Amino acid sequence: MRSYFFLLLFISTVSVSQVRFQKTIAREKTESQKGYTDWAKCISQTEDNGYLVLSTFGLLKLDSIANLQWIKNYTGSFIKKTPEKKYLIAGNTLGFDYINMALIKEDGRAVWKNEYVASSSRIKVVSLKVTEDNYYLVVGWLGGYMFIFKANFEGYIAWSKVLNIRIGDVESKNELQIDEATDGSFFIAGKAFSIRGFTNRNLGFVINIGKYGWMNWLKTYEFETETGKRENLSLEFITATKDGGFIGTKGITLYKFNKKGNNEWVRHAKFVPHTRQIKQFDIIETLDDGIAAMSRTREYYSDIYMVRLDQDGNTYWARTFGGGGIEYGNFLLETNDKGFIIAGITKVGDKHSDIDISSIYLSKTDENGNAGCTQTVMKRFAYKDADYKVIGREFPRSFIINLELNQYTIIDRPKKDPKFGKRKDVIVEIIDLCN
Fold first, then answer.
1. Which terminus of the chain, N or C, has fewer Cβ atoms within 10 Å?
2. In angstroms, rounded to a whole number, what is the distance separating the alpha carbons of residues 165 and 84?
3. CATH code assigned at 277
């Protein structure tokens, strides 16, 4: 039987009816989990204004201020709310032998569990979308090519297609983004190794397919770099807009397209603290027809950057979130109170050092991007002669407290020190930086 140890760290502020907090959920890993990063992959808001968080090691149910209510042994990469107020989970097996899917109720009980298997190839889900006509669409990798299937909420497949678009091998990222247009068709953006026999590694493309899987159009785009060179445009995230078109992102740049895939405008997000090598992680259309986007503040050792724009790409506000560690945002969701919640990871240390602490990170904001103050996790290590706590990391240094001597120690790129012996994780403790 697998056991978990949880500590929830939070500051919660209520402004009118909007809840704000930044929280870290730290879990002690079992022996089989050590070496794997614990992070929030996807999040969905529940009918009681709580949250279902799909993480590396299970599904967490939280209340409206992120207090833990239960954990279930569901794993995957996506969780989506259905029109019947149930929740669809999809993910891959370790060897990509089949796709795991489950439909669950809000209390975590399974309605059904399915496995989708390819007869002569490995298979991988890359994107999941709940459709307006009460179905769901799976986009993924099958034998090197893009596949799509549409199924109902009883798990039965209505139709499936394999497209003549090669998207690399199963171990590559195979990034494919999907959203539903107002006419019931679908926009899919990604990178291809070849399209209809034309080979060009990492060729960015966008396709539009009808509700029955037939391709309406396929587009590739070019953009001009700072040096004046024209290169292929590979959109990293897309979101459909209420005018029938869509918006895509590349770094901090937003591109607006109409329903036929023709470019209408280009905008650069303002107030970006670090523009070099920024990667966009998520983009959504908001309830007021505007845009919210999220990224890192820099390529490595970053905080989370979020920007709010109007429907024409003009910036309203921008915010950064994070504490003493390294924070990555992985999923952005607009909440019922018109605020936002970011789900991701916070880390102290890295895989190249003996100190590597990863925890689930959540930030709930109001509609203006305010999330309260920041808190962090402190991890205690048992040494031969003394106990130490990691309190933060500013590359390449880790800041350590000696609990017995009550003093700080700074270690450059810490390694196993013969003086202290091998380190051992023993407990997670809380430090509230808001006081």
1. N
2. 34
3. 2.120.10.30
Cβ atoms of 280 and 238 within 8 Å: the answer is no
Assess if residue 429 is contained within a domain: no
- Count of other CB atoms within 10 angstroms of residue 335: 19
Residue with tokens 């706590």: 389
How far apart, in Å, are the Cα atoms of 97 and each of 41, 143, 146, 204, 213?
Answer: 21, 11, 16, 27, 24
Parent domain of 119: 6-377
Contact 213, 161 (CB under 8 A): yes
Residue corresponding to tokens 């990509």: 96
Of 342, 362, 334, the C-alpha closest to 62 is 362
Domain membership of residue 427 (yes or no) is no
**CA 396 → CA 348, 358, 418, distances in Å?**
11, 17, 21
Looking at the structure of the chain, the number of domains it has is 1
Angstrom CA distances, 22 to 152, 325, 370, 397, stand at: 36, 13, 10, 25
Spatial separation of the C-alpha atoms in residues 23 and 39, rounded to whole Å: 13
The span from the CA of 248 to the CA of 241, in Å, is 11
Sheet holding 78-81, edge to edge: 78-81, 87-92, 98-104, 110-117
